[in-house]
Fold:
Amino acid sequence: MRLPSRLLGATSPEVGSDQATSGSGPLGLGRSAVFGVVWTVLAAIIGRFGTVIALLLLARLLTPREFGLIGMGLVVVNAMAQVTDLGLSQALVVSRHDSRTLAATASAVVLAISSAFFLGLYLAAPLAVYVFHEPEVVALIRVLAVILVAQGLASVPAALIERDLKFRQKFLPEAVPAFVYAAVAIGLAVAGAGVWSLVAGQVAYPVARAFFLWWALGINPIGRVSLTIARELVGYGKFVVGSSLARFAFLTIDSVAIGALLGPTALGLYEIALNLANLPVTHLTMFVGSVVFPVFAKLRDDASGIRLAYLATTRYVALVAIPAAFWLTVLAPATVPVVLGERWAGAATALQVLAWYAAIRSLWVTTVRIPMATGHVGKLLGLDLTVLAVAAVLLLPLLYARGIAGVALAATIAQAVGLLVLFRLANRLTGARLADVLGALRPVATLTAVLALLVAGTGLALDWQPTTLLELGVAAGLTSLVALAVVAVLEPELRTQARAILARSPASPEPCPSQAKL
Structure:
């Protein structure tokens, strides 16, 4: 299903647009994408640093059961969050209407929908007891439901900033909320609030993010609401909602199964493993995905440009994601007791498996922007249902056979199957060949092979028992530097591209399209 033509609008650049102000279209977009990635990665690194520190401290202060309870509450709330904006975020990115009218219209629609979902979830919260058999979860869900309204209000300015490629404006909104979360959650945990410290932190994060995003956008959300634009946005979003629901079902079926069949302690172990697996890579690539989505959208009529952008994104995301998964697999058994304490040791095996789930999902997060940006969002529903079906078939047998590690394996296999199908779809939409994708993945294959040889040669994965984080970091860092040096010799093209990117100063003026129709 392709996008409505009215939503896509004209494809020729207008005065003040990125392509009009920055020379050649693809060149200008490439420059904006480089700057966007720089600012986005900086924000992601700073924000994830705050999140990691908070997670490690909270794991020391709280129990696996308390992490399991918050996991149960978030499963329910996040299910509703998938439909609160009706896919308006993606519709805003590809829309060419005036930003002020879009901000007012989308905000009104999102606020009405998210408020209705908040009320519905508040009233329906007691039903969760029948699934999780934990009465405490009712009160947690009712407070966590505030997240629906906050996320909805944040989605509009975030999408408009991304649409205009003004990623520098997202730096503070994406970096600061993590520290708000850390301050609130850790402070309350130290005070003895238990699971409620996690609840308060989860609510504080999207509230802070919404505030900073609207401040960064600089547009009053209260203004003229266009019913015509509202219908266009919802018309696009209806294709996204079905896919989002299927995707969310896949992303939560593991937590629901563990919580219902194995209890909150097992779910707490799984959630901490999933968070640790996702922190190094997946959250970072989600930010990168927010950069490449508007770039892909602007290149949708440039067959060569979008193909090159797709292959370059695949290459660089893989270069981060796959080595991170490799190191988590090698170091997880030693890392978990050192970093989190012995009571979390049961999460180590699941972490080793989920490391590869996170790497595969990182490639998914950026590749899925191709059909979204080119107007083929209707094809995603079948893809997401396929992934969900594979997970559903494997989940229970592997859960009973291997516990939380088996659940992690089911999710990883399903995600891998989905990525292969997604690559095939993206290749067809961009004109890329299988050989092109394999070529994009060749550098990371070389790097991983060198890492494996170094680890095997030094015995790092055998009897080595580190006792400090410094020891872990030094071992991984030195080995990675040696591997990167080898890859730099074996992959001269990659070395040339890296030099070209590093030669661009992120302090240079970032091309900013006007607020007029793109």
Summary: Residues 1-27, 504-518 have pLDDT under 50 and may be disordered. The longest helix spans residues 303-340.
